[in-house]
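Quick start: what a row looks like.
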Amino acid sequence: MEYKERSYRSRFSNDERRWFCVKFLESDLWIGVDKGSYSASMEQDVYSMLVDLRRSMDAYLLLDPQYKAALTPYDAGLEAPDILKEMSRVSHKTGIGPMSAVAGAVALKVAEFLGTKEVIVENGGDIYAQASSDMDISVFAGQSPLSEKIGLHIPASAFPLGICTSSGTVGPSLSLGRADAMMIICKDVLVADSYATAFANRIQSINDLQPVIERIQNTPDILGALAVKDDRLAVCGQYELRIFK
C-alpha cells in the first residue's frame, strides 16, 4: 500500500479557523473550529475523549471479533457502545461490513463532543464538516496524475456534510477494489464513509468508472461523488468539479 504525508489537509485549512491534530492508535484527526470557540484545553480534552471512545470500542471488539471481521451487514450486541450500533445500522443500508464506517463515526463523535459553532474533523481522508463558508475539497489519489489536482466545490449552504474517500491503492484500510480514490458526499458521514468503501470495491479498472457512477446516481442518500482510476475520472451529483494547480 502506498502512503503519503497528509499534505491534502492544507487544501481545506485556512485562517478562518483554529486547527490542531489529535492522534491515538489508528485515529489521526485534523480538527478545525471557529476561532471564537477555540480554547487552550481543547486539544487535551479531545485526546482524552478519543482515548475513552477507542478503548470502549476495542474492549467490545475483543468480545465480538466477528464484528471487526465482517464484510457484510452485522449487528452489534446490546452491550456494544452506541458508536458500534450506529455503524451496524449503516452496514444494512450500504450492504458491507460495519467497520467501513468507523472513521466517519469517530469524526462525528468528536464533532458532537466539541459542540462548536463550526467544526471540521478529518480522519484519514474522511471528513465531517459543519462550516459557514464555501469549501473546496481536493482528492488525494496516490500515484494518479489527478491526485490533489481535482476536487469538488461545496457551498456553505450545503453543510453539515460527510465527505469521505476510499482507495484501493492508498493507505491501510481494507478495499476489495483498485480505485485510486472514491469520494462520496452524504448528509450522514457514516453513510458516506461506508458507501465510499462499497463503491471503491467495485472499481478494478478505468472501465468500471462510468458504471459505478451511474449506480451512484440511483442511490438517494448520495449528494455527490468523484471517482479516480489512473488518469481518468467520473463525477456526478450537486457539486461543481474544481481543478487545482
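That is the whole record. Residues 177 and 201 are 4 Å apart (CA to CA). The mean pLDDT is 92.
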